[in-house]
Amino acid sequence: MILNYLNANQAKIKLQAPCFEQLCLPGLTEEFRLNLFINLHDTSSNLKVLFISDENTDELKEEFVNMSQAIFMELNKAEITDILNVCEKKMSEKLGN
Question: What is the domain extent for residue 52?
Answer without folding.
Answer: 2-94
